[in-house]
Design goal:
2 copies of one chain form a homodimer. Chain A has 78 residues and is mainly alpha-helical. Helices cover 73% and strands 5% of the residues of chain A. In chain A, 31% of the residues are buried. Chains A and B meet through helix 1, strand 1, helix 2, strand 2 and helix 3 of A and helix 1, strand 1, helix 2, strand 2 and helix 3 of B.
Chain lengths: 78, 78
């Protein structure tokens, strides 16, 4: 099962100004968002475990978003 | 209306290994993904317009993902 439904994502793209969009564009964005959500969750889970918790909190998510942006920058500088 | 439904995102987080997750963590991830999707769509729309098209394609989405990562790096170096 896909994590995100097609029509609501298409509606969001329209709200962002994209009136005409190929089906493949919506599919591509959906795939990317799903992968990104999985990666961020994995990072948040690591942060939670490191803090001695089993429960992932909102601040774990926020920190993983922040960390991931910093890591991208660091990798690009290697 | 939210672009992404709560339960499928929660299921995706579980699939990524997060067994116990606060409601706020799911909400936070959802908000972030929605904002990110809007931004990426806006970038893709600009790319489509620049190419003289009204239709946003999958390659516009791919290029906007790639561009956005490069821009983040550039901003961090200012």
């Amino acid at each position: 099962m896909a994590a995100f439904a097609w029509s609501p994502l298409r509606a969001l793209m329209k709200k962002a100004g994209a009136e005409i969009v190929s089906r493949a564009a919506v599919d591509k964005l959906m795939d990317y968002l799903e992968e990104y959500a999985k990666t961020l969750t994995g990072c948040a889970l690591d942060i939670a475990k490191h803090s001695g918790r089993k429960k992932v909190t909102a601040t774990d998510i926020l920190l993983s978003i922040d960390n991931r942006q910093k890591m991208k920058i660091a990798i690009s500088l290697i």
